Amino acid sequence: MSKDMTVQCDNGFINIRVGAIILKDGKFLMVGNHIRPEYLYSVGGRIKFGETAEEAVIREVYEETGIRMEVDRLGFVHENYFYGDAESNLAHNKELHDTGQKFMSGKRNGNKGLWRCY
After folding, report:
1. Which of 14, 47, 81, 104 is deepest in the core (most CB within 10 A)?
2. Distance between CA atoms of residues 110 and 105, nearest Å
3. d(Cα 92, Cα 13) in Å, to the nearest integer?
Protein backbone atom coordinates (compact mmCIF):
# COMPACT_ATOMS: atom_id res chain seq x y z
CA MET A 1 0.00 0.00 0.00
CA SER A 2 1.22 3.49 -0.80
CA LYS A 3 2.27 5.90 1.91
CA ASP A 4 0.04 8.64 3.28
CA MET A 5 0.60 12.09 1.82
CA THR A 6 2.32 13.55 4.88
CA VAL A 7 5.46 15.45 3.96
CA GLN A 8 8.07 16.83 6.35
CA CYS A 9 8.82 20.49 5.72
CA ASP A 10 11.43 22.25 7.88
CA ASN A 11 10.25 21.77 11.49
CA GLY A 12 6.73 20.74 10.52
CA PHE A 13 4.59 18.56 8.31
CA ILE A 14 2.12 19.03 5.47
CA ASN A 15 -0.90 16.70 5.48
CA ILE A 16 -2.92 16.31 2.30
CA ARG A 17 -6.36 15.04 3.27
CA VAL A 18 -9.88 14.42 2.05
CA GLY A 19 -13.19 14.36 3.85
CA ALA A 20 -16.79 13.50 3.05
CA ILE A 21 -19.83 15.65 3.75
CA ILE A 22 -22.49 12.96 3.85
CA LEU A 23 -26.15 13.97 4.08
CA LYS A 24 -29.18 11.73 4.60
CA ASP A 25 -32.68 12.95 5.41
CA GLY A 26 -31.28 16.40 6.20
CA LYS A 27 -28.72 15.05 8.70
CA PHE A 28 -24.92 14.93 8.54
CA LEU A 29 -22.98 11.73 9.18
CA MET A 30 -20.33 12.41 11.82
CA VAL A 31 -17.84 10.04 13.46
CA GLY A 32 -15.95 9.98 16.72
CA ASN A 33 -13.64 7.76 18.73
CA HIS A 34 -13.17 6.52 22.28
CA ILE A 35 -10.17 8.78 22.93
CA ARG A 36 -12.17 12.03 22.67
CA PRO A 37 -15.87 11.06 22.61
CA GLU A 38 -17.00 14.71 22.73
CA TYR A 39 -15.16 15.48 19.47
CA LEU A 40 -17.01 14.63 16.23
CA TYR A 41 -15.65 15.01 12.71
CA SER A 42 -16.45 14.12 9.12
CA VAL A 43 -15.34 10.82 7.63
CA GLY A 44 -11.99 11.11 5.85
CA GLY A 45 -8.24 10.87 6.07
CA ARG A 46 -4.96 11.30 4.24
CA ILE A 47 -4.59 10.79 0.51
CA LYS A 48 -2.18 7.98 -0.33
CA PHE A 49 0.57 8.64 -2.86
CA GLY A 50 -0.76 7.88 -6.36
CA GLU A 51 -4.45 8.29 -5.44
CA THR A 52 -6.70 11.02 -6.74
CA ALA A 53 -8.61 12.97 -4.10
CA GLU A 54 -11.87 11.37 -5.27
CA GLU A 55 -10.41 7.85 -5.02
CA ALA A 56 -9.13 8.66 -1.54
CA VAL A 57 -12.47 9.90 -0.20
CA ILE A 58 -14.29 6.83 -1.58
CA ARG A 59 -11.68 4.56 0.09
CA GLU A 60 -11.82 6.45 3.40
CA VAL A 61 -15.62 6.34 3.58
CA TYR A 62 -15.55 2.59 2.89
CA GLU A 63 -12.80 1.96 5.48
CA GLU A 64 -14.64 3.91 8.18
CA THR A 65 -18.26 2.93 7.44
CA GLY A 66 -18.25 -0.20 5.25
CA ILE A 67 -20.40 1.68 2.72
CA ARG A 68 -19.39 2.39 -0.88
CA MET A 69 -20.34 6.01 -1.57
CA GLU A 70 -20.60 7.96 -4.79
CA VAL A 71 -19.14 11.45 -4.93
CA ASP A 72 -21.59 14.12 -6.06
CA ARG A 73 -19.15 17.04 -6.24
CA LEU A 74 -16.33 18.89 -4.52
CA GLY A 75 -17.79 20.84 -1.61
CA PHE A 76 -14.85 23.03 -0.56
CA VAL A 77 -11.12 23.15 0.10
CA HIS A 78 -9.80 24.05 3.55
CA GLU A 79 -6.44 24.75 5.16
CA ASN A 80 -5.44 24.70 8.82
CA TYR A 81 -2.21 25.49 10.61
CA PHE A 82 -1.88 24.04 14.09
CA TYR A 83 0.59 22.58 16.55
CA GLY A 84 0.70 18.76 16.81
CA ASP A 85 -0.31 17.68 20.30
CA ALA A 86 -0.89 13.92 19.89
CA GLU A 87 2.00 11.97 21.38
CA SER A 88 1.25 9.05 19.02
CA ASN A 89 1.69 11.25 15.96
CA LEU A 90 4.84 11.95 13.90
CA ALA A 91 4.02 15.63 14.22
CA HIS A 92 4.05 15.71 18.03
CA ASN A 93 5.38 19.12 19.11
CA LYS A 94 5.68 20.22 15.46
CA GLU A 95 3.73 22.66 13.32
CA LEU A 96 1.22 21.12 10.90
CA HIS A 97 -0.18 22.56 7.70
CA ASP A 98 -3.30 20.52 6.99
CA THR A 99 -4.91 21.00 3.59
CA GLY A 100 -7.96 19.07 2.55
CA GLN A 101 -10.74 18.71 0.05
CA LYS A 102 -14.28 17.97 1.26
CA PHE A 103 -16.57 16.12 -1.13
CA MET A 104 -20.38 16.13 -1.08
CA SER A 105 -22.39 12.92 -1.15
CA GLY A 106 -25.94 12.03 -0.35
CA LYS A 107 -26.05 8.69 -2.14
CA ARG A 108 -24.72 5.31 -1.25
CA ASN A 109 -23.71 2.64 -3.69
CA GLY A 110 -24.14 -1.01 -2.78
CA ASN A 111 -23.74 -2.16 0.82
CA LYS A 112 -26.27 -1.43 3.54
CA GLY A 113 -24.86 0.18 6.62
CA LEU A 114 -25.69 2.05 9.79
CA TRP A 115 -25.81 5.84 9.91
CA ARG A 116 -24.79 7.74 13.02
CA CYS A 117 -26.56 11.03 12.42
CA TYR A 118 -26.50 14.20 14.55
Report:
1. 47
2. 14
3. 10
> What is the reported pTM?
0.72
pLDDT along the chain (118 residues), means of 10: 79 84 83 82 89 91 87 81 62 67 63 36
Angstrom distance (rounded) from CA 27 to CA 118: 6
Amino acid code (one letter) for 33: N
Give the separation between CA 56 and CA 75, rounded to whole angstroms.
15
Query: Which residue intervals of 8-106 are DSSP H helices?
Result: 53-65
